[in-house]
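Repro:
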Amino acid sequence: MTGPKFGRRLGERIKLLASLSGTAPAETGTRGWSLPGVEEMEFMAKRAAALGVSDPFFRQHDGLAAATTLIDGREYINFSSYDYLGLNGDPRVIGRVEEALHRFGTTVSASRMVSGERPFHRELERALAEWHGAEDCVVMVSGHATNVTTLAQLMRPGDLIIHDALAHNSLIQGAILSGARRIAFTHNDVAAAREQLWMHRRAHKRALLVLEGHYSMDGDIPDLAAFVELAREFDCMTLVDEAHSTGVLGARGHGIAEEAGVAPDSIDLWMGTLSKSLISCGGYIAGRADIITYLKRTAAGFVYSVGLPPTNAAASMAALDIIREEPWRIARLRENSTQLLRLFREAGFDTGTSEGYGIVPLVTGSSLLAGRLSQALFERGLNVQPIIHPAVPEKAARLRFFVSASHTPGQIEQTVSLVGQAMRALSE
């Protein structure tokens, strides 16, 4: 992926990282070439420094980051963790990890295809397939790479990939790499998706409809039943990214299908990550057995990558077992998220389209205000990250609150109070 489009995307990402930073970059030229966007990055860094906005990224946490975290020895209420169900650091999980560590070591030392296959790989894959009501599953070492390599392998030039406009970067990059035609439709808009399919489906060989179960920027969910019917109408395969919905949606945490009352086998491919509710690292695809076998034999991100480490698999297996045994964690997460959403709205804050499942944005409408508010809250003992342009449109700049079952009602009430204090101080 080279050329001017790649350069522009790289420049945008550099500006995003630098727009709140007060740190100047190194020399721009190396052996006669320079990175696109470096001059803009320098300008934004100087502008942020002049406004007194410090860099909120890459802060070093001193220990386990849960409902609270330690940064430079100070405790903060923490809303920047994917640990939705409060399982990170659970003694039962650590015990299972220690067992795997002593038996298998820290790595499987090879690609699974050639010499890295271990019993825990299939154990985890069977458990995840059962979790999603699928025939089989393949686990990979990176959630981002799972989407990229799956879409790139399954789709081809002449095919069509139609996806929600707010689809994750990994889905978009996989679609681009596949060579298929890629068309986005208005977020969560079934009618808009139907219009695109009506105009373009017949001109392509195969089609894939791509959704997310729980959108990570806005905290809302799609009308899954309507999209399933749409896919049937236009002969589309379906892929649903459950990264932020596994362990979050549905009374038992089985995701968007359980939440929506839709038969799991009405979806062709379920994608998920191990790094959120399953407190590890990696990604997976669950679906028809023949598709999974095909991916295991051909998908570059699996074939040419080392297998999932023993400790990662053990942590996720332990998390799945605990979620089955303790569904109260999912109910607690929903209670906490609903409380935060309700209190923010009662205080007059813009929370966008969030439905209170685990992600609550606080829309500021300005990247500068988002950065200043994040810093003001950090100074008051609250850790929450800004999401700014170009990651979102400027008018949609926000703070993004990831809620956990381990947050207390008192912490949530204190959070809303601190946000109110900081907003008033910034407006003076």
